[in-house]
Records
---
Amino acid sequence: MAAKKNNQSNTTKDINYYKKKFWRVFAYSLLGVLAFFLFASWGLFGSMPSFEDLENPDSNLATEIISSDGVLIGKYFKTNRSQLKYSDLPKNLVEALVATEDARFYEHSGIDGRGTLRAVFSLGTNGGASTLTQQLAKQLFHGEGSKFLPFRIVQKIKEWIIAIRLERQYTKNEILAMYCNVYDFGNYSVGVSSAAQTYFSKDPKDLTIDESAILVGMFKNSGLYNPVRNPQGVKNRRNVVLSQMAKAKMISEAEKERLQALPITLKFKLESHREGMATYFREYLRDYMKKWVTENKKPDGSEYDIYKDGLKIYTTIDSRMQSYAEEAVAAHMKNLQQQFFIEQKTNKNAPFVNITQAETDRIIMQAMKNSVRWAQMKEMDKSEDDIIASFKVKTKMRVFTWKGERDTIMTPIDSIRYYKHFLQSGLMAMEPQTGAIKAWVGGINYKFFQYDHVGQGARQVGSTFKPFVYATAIEELNMSPCDSILDGPFMIHKGRHHVTEDWEPRNSDYRYRGMVTLKQALAASINTVSAKLIDRTSPEAVVELTKKLGVKTEIPVQPSIALGAVDITVEDMVAAYSTFANQGVYVKPQFLSRIENKSGEVIYEPIPESHDVLNKDIAFAVIKLLQGVTESGSGVRLRTQGGGSGDNRWTGYPYMFTNPIAGKTGTTQNQSDGWFMGMVPNLVTGVWVGCEDRSARFKSLTYGQGATAALPVWGYFMKKCYADKDLQVSKGEFERPANLSIKVDCYPRPAVVKDTTQTEQNTDEFEL
């Protein structure tokens, strides 16, 4: 009996012993886990994000360039990622994401207990346990991490801690938006905004249900489920997402089946700074921003980084006008280029005209030295002889053509000569009252031709300079458009106005018209009249006025400037002409509306710059002079259906405009440059056309003059703008000043000049 009691006592003792041991182990384990979490949160197992990090994660946001009508026209980025708010996300994408990735997202506080237990007991074979918040934590602060199990466990614990902190710091909707903003969808697209543009050429709000399902499917593995490389795998994954949506009652079974039957349809386009809309303007803006960041610092004194700080640059560019301008340039230049190639077929030194072999060699050598090939070989310490020899070896290359890029084999030196054949163009359109630049086309194709012919390239302006001479005469000599002047032989003798030898300008047709009004003289672009006016006013007065009109290039104080022997950019010419349309007030061209930081706070707003140049009466008198050009001069083809030489290259003709238009054509020496400056009351547009090298040109005025080379771009562009009623481009009269003191309504007389297409030339002797 005693033995039995002893056994019971020992059994009770053993149970109590193991109970105590169990609870001791349990307590130590619990304390160990708690300590582990505590140490992890303190950063003993690697740094943890601070409160400030959670508020402002290192997000590498692309800077966005936005047009005046709210269209995203480009980005600056190292990582192509744009910030979206929850309200910017389409409802179908949010539903698909929650249904597929985290069905209990709105129920948990960062960690899904049920999912975690399921993953533990199934050893991960029955689905993972990561919530969207945990995945966000990993994306923001860890990345993929280590494959080594102990390190992976530490990382998972850190993810839990960060997830809980994120849930405390942000709302569920903010977490969803952040997650959609940080995921890498491949093809240089980070975030839903970039992915929508890259794969579907859409804004996120315009995504359809099946497109949203494709993107959500990519969250599992964007490398594996890449729509470009693996369309079948993507379709299968998309259909899984759609099934999850149907299971969650977000779409019906019938809708699920309809959507699952759809093919994978992409509109794939990699976002690149060399392609897309307004490429030349975006590069001009990039250069501007390089200086801006040094002058406009962050509150902490550091510089903004346009490649990662997620700035929003709101510009004055109108995406519709920009599109029409690019279309106009492309349509006409493609057309005119055909004629240029036809002319050059018989030119042994194509595309150069009337230059020596030594001059040709100098041009080619300069192009070689400016090339990427030369720079790369120089870095490799190659000798100049070796570099030159490499330019004579045939190689595979992709070249630009107006029918698309083409693979070919040629020597680099031949490719230089080939590219010298291409006619270039510059176009800028601006509101004269505000200075807002609405369209900017700096060339024919930024990928192949980076030189900007709007803000970068100053070219000789020809007869488009003459209105500055006439404006000076009206101001200095109290003349009017209706005053008469003799068109006859004229000479400025050596010593007068700094002339080093006798200068006798002649008209392009070598004839004289006798007495003409100033309006008729400008319409016919009579050289002798311009020369007489600058002789009376002095070159100094004309230069002074031109500077007030915003022209920044150096202008020689010589009478010959009256015929346009002056280099000016398209940008400056548009601003100068806008002064006439703005009643004599110069407004500096403006391309920025404001700049915001990634939080939407305005950090910069430019202050408009303007100053008075001419009184209203003089400015209006110049407008009336310029209207004569489109009524009876070289711009009359804007109003007629009549023919003329080169008419098969007048892109978009007939234009048949009936509204008031003030304008001026210009053609420079040997047809190297063709210009047209055109104005309506609320839009001034300048167009230049010519080859990169002035010795590459049309042989005759028929195609090389401004009326054929540049005016058609303006006409085509304006037809597009007028067809778009939302743009509200004016067809009305220019505002006439009250109590106008200058006679501008001249008595009727037979027009001196009809539409002659061979009346423009600029040499030391004559120009129109």
---
Amino acid sequence: MPETQDPHVTQPSSAKFVYDFTEGNKDLKDLLGGKGANLAEMTNLGLPVPPGFVITTEACKVYLDSGTEPAALRAEVSEHLDALEQKMGKKLGQADDPLLVSVRSGAKFSMPGMMDTVLNIGLSDASVSGLAAQAGDERFAWDSYRRLIQMFGKTVLGVDGELFEEALEEAKQAKGIRVDIELDAADLKSLVAHFKDIVAKETGRDFPQEPREQMDLAVRAVFDSWNTDRAKLYRRQERIPGDLGTAVNVCSMVFGNLGPDSGTGVAFTRDPASGHQGVYGDYLQNAQGEDVVAGIRNTVPLADLEQIDKASYDELMQIMETLETHYKDLCDIEFTIERGKLWMLQTRVGKRTAGAAFRIATQLVDQGLIDEAEALQRVNGAQLAQLMFPRFDLGAKSETIGRGIAASPGAAVGKAVFDSYTAVKWSRSGEKVILIRRETNPDDLNGMIAAEGILTSRGGKTSHAAVVARGMGKTCVCGAEELEVDTKSRKMTTQDGTVIEEGDVVSIDGSTGKVYAGEVPVVPSPVVEYFEGRMHAGAEDADELVKAVHRIMAYADRVRRLRVRANADNAEDAARARRFGAQGIGLCRTEHMFLGERREMVEHLILADNESDRDAALSQLLPLQKADFIELFESMDGLPVTVRLLDPPLHEFLPDITELSVRVALAEARKDANENDLRLLQAVHKLHEQNPMLGLRGVRLGLVIPGLFAMQVRAIAEAAAERKNAKGDPRAEIMIPLVGTVQELEIVREEAEQVIAEVEKAHGVSLRLTLGTMIELPRAALTAGQIAESADFFSFGTNDLTQTVWGFSRDDVEASFFTAYLEKGIFGVSPFETIDKDGVGSLVRNAVAAGRATRPDLKLGVCGEHGGDPESVHFFHEAGLDYVSCSPFRIPVARLEAGRAAAESKGSDSR
């Protein structure tokens, strides 16, 4: 969070809050925001950028902290506005030849549509006629004025935007027309009067006529938009820090709504959906920028610009090549053509789909623009995980009901919903939903996050829906014009008259743009088939995406220091993990081996009240455990297998106390009570715990029930001995769970070493079995130096460690209050999903340092869920662990992130 500043403290005179575009560059994003820094960079490159200036993020931070702008800001803005007016040869809002400006947000990280922009600042009743005379187009002037009042009214004055939309629709209906551009000057003049009445009625004040007041209020509104609900929600979704603030860009207006020789567009230097090179983007004649991104009017493909205005098209293609070479990446570009003159309004490194990210990274390597290390940094584990999701089985029988633009790939199935509120409500009830809209706007963000996919009947690859969906990795189909979406009636109608009501299941394919009625079956991703070994990246017919993934993964594996193991409890999972690149098993949870039919055996063991019954139960379990371990050692031959001894909360292996009590009570009422049930109930009552997760489990269970851990150690040792005698290479590591003090570990270790020696003698082998512990209690982490004296390795159990550090019950808290904590910004992300570096992470670092101080060769790993989380993997690399362990499906993600962490660390060291 930003530090709170005293509003009465004068800012230092050296503080500079405003920069001309000529003063900045692309490396000043922290100060000028992404948009301002890149406008400055394009200005420096000599590209046609309308003159302007940037109010810095530092000014925003002062405003957000104190509630007022920095004392020096107004004078600085006036100085830069004077310079802009001199450069343009006109004054802001002057009556005869007005200078108009846009006031646009621009944070360090792209937040498409989440913050505010106001165009045509400076127009008023006094200057609209001057603009008409200057442009020689009365319709254009009144269209620009109605846009200003509409945007300013909604954004700055807080008027409900629907009121303006309804008035605009009424004006079109009155003339019997469908699109805005068919309204003439008289219609727009009347609409301006209507809009001004709306402002006066809703705000109690007239629309401001003084140009500088318009600009100052718009700047303040942009600052305020940093903390709107939708902006905060987007930042949480994208993990953007909340204390960065936004810059404000004040730019002289250029107009795309001056007639058919004018227009506005968005372009990409490569296809953001596939990564393929070509001409990609949207163009709209006689329009301003918001018309394109809002999806209100359907655009034409950028390639059509060549026929519409070849000179501007050729210049744009040259600029796009210049920018991609300069930025060495896919660039997202906004431009306007004003009566045949091309202007660049924005460029940024473009958001892309997961598949495009991998393809583009390898393409840029082949073009010599970046090296392999940089290519590895251009992709991430979250993108790789997306590529591993299933896709639709195109060979299955399915009913295609429409087709739109493939805006963001994936296979999404869910019930049709037509507003964000319903999407969120149904999603929270466990329903999978597809959000269907004519077009989305920033207010739909909640619903877009909740939905499996987004379908719109308007807009293209650069519309709000497409850009936001790609950023979130969410499946999206846009511009399905043949589908008529009626949000008020909550239905969608196809061309042949088929009606999709709210609640009907639909399927959308973000890779082809196809929309299907009902649920379409899915098949494995080709990337998963590659990892499974069913597709060879070197084959001639191999999928291009698979080849790109293979190249980047191969480099990640070469440079990473962290090894990657699997959490696997059976031979099938172990074999799959090995195919996915696992370098051993980091966690075999033996309690999972005792579910099903074996559960009763463990129950008998726990409830045994004499040595004879206990020995009988252990004798039953030993051969079963041994067989389990033989299979695991075969699957992972030559690789380490860490076996955690039994660690269940006790209640998992005992009869439910409520059900048992009811059964006994009913039997007693019938006077036919079973003596065994009565004894069982007494035993369960005796062992019943209020908080089983902090009760008799882990090492405590092994110490309280004689022979339990010895049986498991014997099963491990005998399985390893048999495997070794069969010329195998078993590498078992025995892990003692829930240790809080070295004395616990010493007792178990002494018993285990005795059992291992007996097995070695009986089988005539020498076994390399190591013994270590899980560090999952704060006390274990704080006394790690002592515990290391009796441990060959540590494996951090970060699930329990997070639970005990925070005092959270992970079985309960996520459903009870985590949503509120995330919404209030207490968490940026659940600490069970990404490691809490300050709290849990501090204990991990302490344990690493203390453990290695005692035993320099101490092996260190992690086996909690964090082992497969991309951000957490980077932390474990920095903390000095030797390996991470995760579920089989997450292994490729962990491998990639381990490589990225190593490359990033090396890059930091070289700098």
